[in-house]
Design goal:
Structural class: mainly alpha
Number of strands: 0
Helix content: 40-55%
Number of helices: 1
Shape: rod-shaped
Strand content: under 5%
Low-confidence stretches: none
Distance between the termini: 89 Å
Mean pLDDT: 84
Length: 52
């Protein structure tokens, strides 16, 4: 019974440490700014010939 108690206590400590590291990284990580594709270029307009 003592062995199982130590294994459960160790598992609890490891899970708590992993959760704390994940939450800490989510709170301190600064996301990179989003760059839309082609945002630096002007829009290209292609004229369409009307069929009248």
């Amino acid at each position: 019974m003592k062995f199982e108690s130590h294994i459960l206590a160790g598992l609890f400590v490891v899970c708590f440490a992993v959760c704390a590291l994940v939450v800490g990284s989510m709170l301190t990580l600064a996301p990179a700014p989003v760059q839309l594709a082609g945002a630096a270029h002007a829009a290209v307009v292609v004229p369409v010939a009307s069929a009248s």
